[in-house]
Amino acid sequence: MSSGPWKRGAGCGWASPPVSEDGHDRRHAFGCGFPDNKRCDVIAKSRRSLLASIPTICLAGKLAAQGSTRPDFTEAPEYRIFDAPPDTHILSRQDVTVDGSGYRLFLAVPKATAPADGWPSLWMLDGNAVFDRIGASDLVSQPGLAVIGIGYPVDQIFDTTARALDYTPVSRVPDPEAGRGRATGGADSFRTRLLGPLRDAVEKRVSIDPARRVLWGHSYGGLFTLHCLLSEPHAFAGWAPTSPSSGFGGNVLQHLSAGAPLLEPGKIAPVHIMLGDSEYRRGTEPPAVPQPSPDTMALAKLLEQREDLDVRVTVLKGLGHGQTFAASFPQALDLAANLPGN
C-alpha cells in the first residue's frame, strides 16, 4: 500500500430490516457512525503488499449518524451545499435526456483557471445523494478537483427504479429485483450513455483532463464501477468502488473477470475498493466476528492478479453498508486529486 499519491507504474446482509433497496443493512445510514475523535481501523492490501491494520481517521463529510432507523428513500434532498457553496468551487445542476431516459448532472468545478490539460475529475454515481451529503469542507480539501455527480431528475435522494436498471449487469440467476417490480440488467446501455452523451454534456462545459478521470460508486453503483472496469478498463484512469454489490446475479463480476480485457502494456490503473466490516445481508445471521464481504474480497483477489491494476482494499472497522457511502468520500477525492496524468 502506498501512503502518498497514486503513481502509475509504482508497483504500480443483514439479518433483518432496516435494509436498503438492494438488501443491505442501512443502520446508521450515511453517517460515519463513530463517536467524536474515535479512529476506525483500516486494513489495506495491494498486489505487492499487505499491512494488517492501519489507523486512519474516518471522515464522513457533513453527515451525522442517523441511528438505527431505516432511511426514507423518498426523502427529499436538501442540497445545503448549494445554499452555502465553498469558496473554491462553482456549483451547478443540469437535466439532460439520453435515449428517452432522464439524468441530472451535478457539477462542482474549481474557480481557478483550469490547467492546460484540464481538471482531474471524480465522477460519482447516485449524484442526488452525493450532492445532498457532500460537505463544503470536502470540496475545499481538494480545490483543484472537479466533482461530477450523475443523478436523476427526481425529488428523492435515490431513484431506486432507475439505478436498479442502470447499475446492474445481466444476471446469471433469476432476477433478484423481480419481486420489487424493478428491471435490472441495463449496465451495458448505461455505460454507453455515461461514456458518450453524459460525458460529452459535462465536458462541453468543463475542461476535463481525459487522463485523470476517476469513477466512484456505492452498492449497486460500486457494482457498476467494477463492471465498467472489467468491460472497458480504459474508460477511466482510476476506480473507487465502495461497498459494491459484488455477489449480484450469481457472482457475475467474478465470471466476467476471467475474460476481461486488459489495459495496454505499461499502463497501470489504481483500484481502491472500500467497504465496511459490518455489512451482511438480510435473512442471514451476523457473523460472530465482523468481517468484510467474502464476495468482494474474493473479487479483489482476482483483480490483484492483473498486472495492469494496482489494487487497494480498505476495510472500515465498525461501518455498515450505508455508513460507507459518505465515509468513502475523503479517500475517493484524494485518489482523484492525486492521480498523475500521462
UniProtKB/TrEMBL annotation:
Lineage: superkingdom: Bacteria
Keywords: Hydrolase
Pfam (any one): Esterase
Region (Disordered) residue spans: 1-23
GO molecular-function terms, A-Z: hydrolase activity, acting on ester bonds
Gene3D superfamilies for this protein: alpha/beta hydrolase
Family: Belongs to the esterase D family.
PANTHER family referenced in this protein's UniProt entry, alphabetically: SIDEROPHORE TRIACETYLFUSARININE C ESTERASE, SIDEROPHORE-DEGRADING ESTERASE (EUROFUNG)
Protein name: Alpha/beta hydrolase
Organism of origin: Paracoccus onubensis
